[in-house]
Amino acid sequence: MANRLAHETSPYLLQHAENPVDWWPWSDEAFEEARERGVPVLLSVGYSSCHWCHVMAHESFEDDTTAAYLNENFVNVKVDREERPDVDAVYMEAVQAATGQGGWPMTVFLTPEAEPFYFGTYFPPAPRHGMPSFQQVLEGVHHAWTDRRDEVDEVAGKIVRDLAQREIAYGGTQAPGEQEPAQALLGLTREYDQQRGGFGGAPKFPPSMVIEFLLRHHARTGAEGALQMAQDTCERMARGGIYDQLGGGFARYSVDRDWVVPHFEKMLYDNALLCRVYAHLWRSTGSELARRVALETADFMVRELRTAEGGFASALDADSEEEVPREARLHKGGGGRREGGTGKHVEGAYYVWTPEQLADVLGPEDAELATRYFGVTEEGTFEEGASVLQLPQQDGFVDAEKVESIKRRLREARETRPAPGRDDKIVAAWNGLAVAALAETGAYFDRPDLVDAAVTAADLLVRLHLDDRARLTRTSKDGHAGANSGVLEDYADVAEGFLALASVTGEGVWLEFAGLLLDHVLTRFTDPESGALYDTAADAEQLIRRPQDPTDNAAPSGWTAAAGALLGYAAQTGSEPHRTAAERALGVVKALGPRVPRFIGWGLAAAEALLDGPREVAVVGPALDDPATRTLHRTALLGTAPGAVVVYGTPDSDEFPLLAERPLVGGEPAAYVCRNFTCDAPTTDPERLRSALTS
Description:
The structure is a single chain. This protein is of the alpha+beta class. The chain folds into 4 domains: 4-165, Glutaredoxin (3-Layer(aba) Sandwich), CATH 3.40.30; 179-316 and 423-612, Glycosyltransferase (Alpha/alpha barrel), CATH 1.50.10.10; 319-419, no CATH class; 616-692. The protein is 48% helix and 10% strand.
C-alpha cells in the first residue's frame, strides 16, 4: 500500500512511495503529528540519482522489520534535497559541524520543534567498518528519547544556539581589487595537481567555476599559468573516464585522482557548466578538443536530458540494470533499450566494457584497436574485469573515420542495454545554467538548433515557473509547477541564462525578465544593511536558521551567481542600484578568495568582470539578418574580455539601453565598445573589434 509520498511530484519521493515506512513529506502536519504522539522525527534527505540513497532504501526502508520499528517510534520525513535545498542546507550545516563531514543520504533525528539532536549519513543494515547498524542507531535514539529526554532537549537547544551564532566570513561592502585574484591564483597554484590536472586528491570533482576564473584572469592579465592550469585540467577530464567517450557529457566526479573511474550519475548542472567552460576555452585558445567536447556535451543535454515540455531533466542515475550475457540474450530473442536486464541494479553497468564485449560488437580486428584507443584492459579499470572508456593516447594515432565507425557501433550496441533512470524534475536554477550554455555554444559554433533549445527552455521557465509577480517556483515535472518557492540560486541562475539569451538573440524581452528576477534579489534576498545575501527570501518558510552560504558547491553559490548576474544586468542597463548591490555582494571575495579560492571560483570570476569593467559592446546594423551585422555580433560574442556584455539591434531599437544614440557609421554596421556607458570610437572592422575585446 502506497504511503503519503504517492501524492508528491518529486521522482525521489515517488521512489519511496511504496516503502513500508510511513513516510511524510516535509510539512507542518508531520511535525504536529510528532508533537501529538510525543515521538522524534527521522529526517532522511537524498536525491534521485544518489547511489547510496538507493542502497540505504533497499537495505533498510524496504525492510518490513525496520519499517515497523520506524513507524512505531518515529514520524518519518523524506526530503528531496533538490526540491528543498534550504532544508538540506540547514541540517547539512548541523551534520558537518557535529561530525566534520556530510553527504547523502543524510539522516538526522529532530525534536517535534525541528531541532536536530543526532546526525549521520548512510547507515548499513549490520555493523560495518566501525559504523553501527541502522537498527542500532534507531534503538539508541529511541532509548535516549524515552529515558533521557531532558538530555536530548538540552543537546538540541545547544545545537540550534550554536548554529544561530555561526557567522560567515564576510569581507564587508568593499569590492575586491587586484590583490584578491592574484592571491587566489597563488593559492590555486599550490593546490594544483601538476601530474593529473585539477585540484586536491580523490574524489576529484570538475572545478568548473575555478576554470572560469582562470580563463577570465588570463584574459585580463595575460597570466600564462592560469591558462595552463585551465587547459591541462580540461584536457585530462576530457580524456578521462569522467567524460562519456561515446555519448558525450560528464559524470558527477572521479573516485580516483586520475579521472579514470567516475561516479556515473550525470547531472544537468555539471554538464551545463562544463559545456560553457569548454566553449570558453575554445574561445580563448581555438582548441579542437575543447570545441568537440563543448558540442558533444551540448548535444548530450539536448538528446538525453530534454523533456517533452522543452526543459531539461535534473539527472541520469549512476545505476542501471545489469546486462544479460549475450548467450542468454540471444536465447530470449534479443531486447529493446530497457529490456534484457537481470533486475539487479549495478553502478556503471550502462557505460563499462570488457574486451569480450568489444569483440562481440566490433569483431576481433576493430576490437583490438578499440581496446588500445579507449584504454580497455583484461584486468579492467573498474570492477569485475570491466573498463571505463578513456582516451589515454593522443587523437590521430589511428584513422579518424575508423574511430568514428567504432564509436557509432558501440553507441548503437550500448543503446540496447538497460538504460539508467532519469530524474525528470526540472529545476529552475539548473535550467538557467543550461540556457546560458546552449545559447552561447550555439552562437559560437553556428548551431541555431542549440540556441532554439535554449529559447524553448527559457520559454518554459517563464510560462511555468514564473508567476504574475515574477516569483519563481523551484521545480516542475510533466508540465506541472511544484509547490516549493525558488531560492536565491534559482533567481540568479535563471537571470544569468536570460542575460546570455538576450546577448545571443537580440531580443530585449529576456533582459526585461532578468531585471524582474534581479529586483527580487534586491528586495527579498539582500540584507539592506550589509549587502550580504541569503539563500532564501525574507518571506520564505522559517527554518531553525536562515541559510546563507557564499561558497560554491557543485554549482555556483546563489550569492556569487547573483553578484555576477547583477553586475551583468547593470552593464546592460546602466542601473546603479544593481551595480552597487553586485559590488557589495562581492565583498565576500575579499575574505574568502585568498583563503579558499577553490570554493569561491564563481565569485572570483565575477570579480574579474568587475575589474575589467565589465566591457559593454553594442552592435548596430540596418537589420538583424544583415550579414555584416551578424559578423560583428559574432565577433563581439567571441571576445574574451571578462564578463563582457553584448547587445545588437537596429539604430532605432529601444530594446536595449546600450543601443541608445548608437548610429550606423557611414551607413555601415558598427560596434561600440564601452565601459560605464563611455565608449571608444565605433568600428566597422571585425578585426579591430576583436582586438578591442582581447586586450
